[in-house]
Amino acid sequence: MGVDSRYLPGLLRPGQPAVERLGKMWGVPLQRIFQPLDLAAKLKKGEIKALLVFGEDPLASAQAGGLLAKVKFKLVADFFLTATAAEADVVLPMSSPLESSGTFTACDRRVQRSAALVLPAAGKTNLEIMAALAAKLGMELTPTAPDEIFDEIGRANPYYQGVETGAFWGRTLFLDTFATGSGKGKFLPVTIDSATCNREKQPLLASENYLQFKIKNKLVV
User: Fold this and answer.
1) Would you kindly state where each structural domain of the chain is located, as residue ranges?
2) Rounded Cα gap, residues 104 and 102, in angstroms
3) Which of 98, 131, 132, 193 has the most CB atoms lying inside 10 A of its own CB?
4) Residue 198 has pLDDT above 70, yes or no
């Protein structure tokens, strides 16, 4: 979805032709302004003065405490008083999944639809909170309706093109066999801290090099 600072939706990197397509779709010169940042390095140097944390608890990890020490203003949106929310300058009450309509993607890549059962106790949905924050920063977020956002995801992210709710994204992503001589896979235990800001978890989940250097090189062919 482009939440990693190195990528745009669909794992696009700077300079790829599809970046220009996204820029035209959004009316933004992405080829010029899309420059991935090392957020951890900037936080350590104190170059990031304000931080918006939406639905995460980085201070649950001891490693993240030092990264956030030089941030002067922290705005946290959450529906629990987490360790990060307790340290925030401003806390915005999020709407819970029971108060939100839209879609969720499960860990097995299944896209699931959710319908709000009750109105948000705080009076605003998460989409309304983000739109109001954007307006304060001089930006108008469109679209704002859940179905319209889901349609835009399908247009922006090729992995989601043509995916209906209840189906899986990336239907051609995996094969029935592994890339080994026998076609069978070898599973290895991975022991890492599952905290949000654990730096060991980032290459496991996001890096295109992890499969090559950590898994393929250990396969018994």
Assistant:
1) 98-174, 175-221
2) 7
3) 131
4) no
